[in-house]
Design a protein that fits this description.
about 200 residues, alpha/beta, Rossmann fold, five-stranded parallel sheet, 5 strands, elongated, HAD_sf, HAD_2, HAD-like_sf, Pseudouridine 5'-phosphatase
Length: about 200
């Protein structure tokens, strides 16, 4: 059973912000020009790796051109990202009861700024936000480095087993959101982790 926790660390894409589909729209638009289908099989293989997209789909463009075009389109679509169901309710609840929470995202500063531009007030509620281009982030997920670095920025730094995170990583932290336990943050029950329940 879950143990009582004192701190929470969230990811961004697909958990707090509904951005996952934007990547699919972006790459499908590019592939449409070449009359190719950016299928789920391709998505699962590439995970945004530009060279693999080009090689598998035989796009007549360089890796640099694909990255440049995708970045241009991302600037258009990222600011349209909406909050995921249950995200605002949970964050407001945590803040109301003075439960520390932060965010650890692989997104770099420029990318994250675009994603959160419509929700600055919401993200200002976080204790701190660890970005992928932070100097303390030596390795990207699934390496636990970013989550450990994020946890250490809480003041005071909590025991790792008292932190609840959304990814299954070797951090000694408790895991929930990336497992089949929850379909979305709407299903999160704070009382299962020793926190006050929703009113």
């Amino acid at each position: 059973p879950p143990q009582p926790i004192t701190h929470l660390i969230f990811d961004t894409d697909g958990l707090l912000l509904d951005t996952e589909w934007l990547y699919s729209v972006l790459f499908q638009e590019i592939c449409d020009f070449y009359e190719k289908k950016y299928s789920w099989v391709v998505k699962s293989l590439v995970m945004e790796a530009a060279q693999i997209i080009i090689d598998i789909l035989q796009l007549l463009m360089s890796k640099e051109e694909l990255v440049e075009e995708s970045q241009t389109k991302l600037k258009e679509v990222f600011p349209t990202a909406v909050l995921m169901p249950g995200a605002e309710n949970l964050i407001v609840h945590l803040q109301k009861h003075s439960i520390p929470f932060a965010m650890a995202t692989s997104s770099g500063s420029a990318s994250l700024d675009m994603k959160v531009s419509r929700h600055k007030e919401f993200f200002s509620l976080f204790s701190h936000i660890m970005r992928g281009d932070d100097p303390e982030v030596q390795h990207r997920k699934p390496d636990p480095n970013i989550l450990l670095a994020c946890a250490k920025r809480f003041s005071p730094c909590p025991p790792m087993e008292k932190c609840l995170v959304e990814a299954t990583l070797a951090t000694r932290m408790q895991v929930v959101f990336a497992t089949p336990v929850l379909n979305s943050l709407q299903d999160f029950q704070p009382e299962l982790f020793g926190l006050l329940p929703y009113e």
